[in-house]
Amino acid sequence: DVFGWGLNSYGQLGMPYDFSMPASSQLVYFPKRVDELCGRGVVAADGGEAHTVALAASGKVYAFGRSAYGRLGLAGIDPKDDEPRSAMSEVAGVPGRATAVVAGGSNSGAVTASGDAYLWGYGELGQIGRGDDQSDALTPERVVPTKNMKDTRVAAVSFGGQHAALLCVPADGGDA
What we know:
By secondary structure, the chain is mainly beta.
């Protein structure tokens, strides 16, 4: 079972958003079962500022909550659309099987079984690893390994307030 609580101002808990109420009053004070997520094989989830990414045992990535800046990674959403999205939607741009997911303030990411990192969302401060291109990534983009990442694979991704970090381990499975 999956439980959530706290502010649901953009549907980030995966619970239905009530458009007849102000966003600031959409609070869940105690852990409540998130029916839509239960029974779907969710094995991990991470909450950002106003969105959540979830990982299913199948390796599929899902997202819900605030869509601005592309933080949900869902193709076909207008980047200026800021409507709450409480329904769990598959992030189709992560190829293969994901093994980990992460949500930042306005970013999201996934690590694949092949050791690649895919990031998406707010890019203005360079935190999605696209060099001089600081535009938002509306769908997942593979982090291009640098020369220093040669012979490694990504094991984990983490977001800070305005930055990201990759944990890379030897590609051959040896000690980091």
